[in-house]
Task: structure prediction
Amino acid sequence: MCIVFLHFNNDMGAKYKLIMAANRDEYLSRPTKSADIHPDFPNIICGIDMKSGVEGGTWLGVSKSGKFSALTNVMARSPDPSKLRKGKLVIDYLKDEVDPLDYLKSLQDKTHREFNMLAGKIDSCGKICLGYYSNWDGKSPMLLTDGTNVVAGTALNGNWRKIKHGRKTFDDIIGKSASMNVGDLTNCLLESLLSDTTSLYPDELLEEQCYGTFSDTVLEKYCSVMISGITLCGTRSQTIVLIDENNQIHFTEMSLNGYDAADRTAWSKSSYSFTAMITEPNSS
Result:
């Protein structure tokens, strides 16, 4: 159950066009490679899932052409094994120059397991274009407007207590971001937002959506932005993506090596900065 905080601002002179901060929550034993240039698609930078059947997939990534995307699971009953896996959707979007909304619309007639997906780009005018689609809420793909959005294992900008709690912290950081350089902003998002283990338990809405899957002890840990203290699963990676006024993309990932998220020495860091090479998309 991942969580993605995202803010974009297309106003002239905005220091940061895009600020995205995300936690990936996953089984701690799931084989994963830290963020790197994708071995099959050198235009893409992302963490890489190495689980059998979805090898080479990812949950969040950027492309050198100015595209970005993130995917979250949906908290629900056990996934339907007859449905398509979703682990390569982000890669499929990033590897081609397809428009965000066109790509999301192409998923409507397919039967993937439940997901929420963000697909964005810097357009030819230097503006952020961002689409969103969830295949489980009955709504069509949409373009989002400037501002803040939070995507987690529920509806867009849902009412889980940890979403509201994290959004307040995120908005406070956004309010100060114009006076912060890339390094300071990245560190602030990692430390103050993504590493927040404040438990917002109990949360009736989250509990209802998990259909009795988790014990109260596990639910208490799940009710925080950063999930830690559970033996089998928790926050595995933390990613910051910043796009500045000059179309410089700054990508930072912290990846957990081991099972103790509270031990900051167990985390490794990967960072990339580059200027987006913006091209016109192929529209369907």
